[in-house]
């Protein structure tokens, strides 16, 4: 596997001017260094290609859920059924994701991600056919489980950065911030693209386009073998959950996921109209901007500090909603989102340092699983609060409380050291 040589440049630690592939001994083009930390990432040999492929593959992650809801609701005239089917698919994916990630760590990204993606795409297409033919309801629940083999594309991209930049902690911090901003961008644009396709073309269009993008992106990503982390077939077979500090950290991510899930539901319930999407997107926009700024910082802060900031900022939408002003709520969500990306970047960086390199994909996928579990729990709790609200802004108590719980869990288990 080709390895980059690091050297010290006036702009800081960077890749050496020439990058040699040990298998071919053919030097590549010189790497251009830059004082802009993000431009330096694009200067890493092979990085641009896998960034593009991963971006294409990650966009459908924000499309599939909305596309399925629109497609199923249009055919069966039931949003309850549509929500149940998509929730089943999410739950199945959360259960299988760590196992897929373990296979990726053991056998390599290309060998596992490509067939797993093909199988998941076939699952989406089978679900589409079942909906189009108005198959029995049980068939929808059964076929949506076939999509559960989708690999964690974001985790695989972060694993590549961890491999390429393992000797440059500042550059790895910037890469993690870039990946988080990419997540926010995809989950902002994905639902919009899906809704546009389904409404302007036909209800199944979002699923079809999403499946095509997903497969194309993974194929491009997997083809970049020079940046793929080496496999460790003889690595320890134990779960990263056994690593000291990992289980308490996953509990923090579980509570953090509840913040995201509940905020989405209570905001939609409070706004209750077509502007709910754009208003909610402001939170993601704030997170994306803050993440990019945080990525340029030379020093990170403790995860506990980030969680404390999130706990404080999550009270802003509650206060804004109590005024009854939609404009105030939009501004409150923008501010609240600014704590999200720094928290995720710092937390993911801590996961990378706790998890053995041979189990990095599995460790980060467990983190995503914890987040998904928290999102599901937060959505359910937020929905209950919205239905039983004694006053209009009552639902916004849920994300504020969830953020406080995440902070409390971290404060109770933190062993010290920079995160």
Automatic annotation (TrEMBL):
InterPro entries: MFS, MFS_trans_sf
This protein's UniProt keywords: Membrane, Transmembrane, Transmembrane helix
Coiled-coil stretches: none
Pfam families found in the cross-reference section: MFS_1
Keyword Transmembrane helix tagged: yes
Range of residues in the leader sequence: none
Transmembrane segments: 49-72, 79-100, 112-131, 208-224, 245-263, 275-294, 326-351, 363-385, 391-409
SUPFAM superfamilies per record: MFS general substrate transporter
UniProt key word Transmembrane: yes
PANTHER family on file: MAJOR FACILITATOR SUPERFAMILY (MFS) PROFILE DOMAIN-CONTAINING PROTEIN, PTHR23542
Protein name in UniProt: MFS transporter
Organism: Streptomyces flavochromogenes
């Amino acid at each position: 596997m080709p390895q980059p040589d690091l050297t010290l440049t006036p702009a800081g630690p960077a890749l050496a001017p020439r990058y040699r592939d040990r298998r071919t001994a053919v030097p590549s083009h010189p790497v251009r260094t830059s004082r802009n930390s993000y431009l330096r990432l694009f200067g890493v040999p092979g990085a641009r290609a896998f960034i593009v492929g991963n971006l294409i593959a990650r966009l459908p992650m924000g499309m599939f859920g909305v596309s399925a809801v629109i497609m199923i609701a249009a055919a069966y005239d039931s949003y309850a059924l549509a929500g149940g089917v998509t929730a089943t698919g999410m739950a199945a994916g959360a259960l299988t994701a760590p196992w897929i990630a373990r296979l990726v760590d053991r056998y390599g990204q290309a060998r596992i991600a490509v067939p797993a993606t093909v199988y998941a795409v076939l699952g989406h297409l089978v679900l589409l056919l079942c909906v189009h033919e108005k198959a029995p309801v049980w068939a929808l629940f059964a076929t949506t489980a076939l999509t559960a083999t989708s690999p964690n594309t974001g985790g695989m991209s972060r694993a590549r950065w961890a491999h390429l930049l393992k000797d440059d902690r500042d550059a790895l911090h910037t890469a993690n911030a870039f990946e988080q901003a990419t997540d926010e961008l995809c989950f902002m644009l994905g639902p919009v693209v899906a809704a546009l396709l389904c409404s302007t073309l036909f209800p199944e269009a979002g699923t079809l386009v999403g499946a095509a993008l997903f497969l194309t992106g993974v194929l491009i990503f997997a083809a970049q073998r020079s940046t793929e982390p080496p496999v460790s077939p003889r690595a320890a077979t134990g779960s990263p959950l056994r690593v000291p500090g990992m289980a308490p950290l996953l509990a923090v991510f579980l509570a953090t996921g509840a913040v995201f899930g509940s905020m989405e539901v209570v905001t939609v319930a409070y706004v209750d109209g077509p502007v709910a999407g754009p208003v909610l997107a402001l939170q993601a926009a704030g997170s994306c901007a803050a993440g990019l700024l945080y990525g340029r910082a030379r020093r990170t802060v403790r995860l506990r500090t980030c969680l404390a900031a999130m706990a404080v900022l999550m009270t802003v939408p509650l206060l804004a909603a109590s005024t009854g002003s939609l404009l105030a709520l939009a501004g409150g969500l923008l501010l609240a989102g600014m704590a999200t990306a720094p928290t995720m970047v710092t937390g993911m960086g801590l996961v990378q340092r706790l998890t053995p390199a041979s189990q990095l994909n599995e460790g980060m996928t467990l983190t995503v699983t914890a987040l998904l579990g928290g999102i599901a729990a937060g959505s359910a709790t937020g929905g209950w609060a919205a239905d039983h609200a004694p006053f209009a802004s009552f639902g916004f108590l849920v994300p504020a409380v969830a953020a406080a719980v995440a902070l409390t869990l971290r404060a109770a288990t933190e062993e010290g050291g920079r995160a």
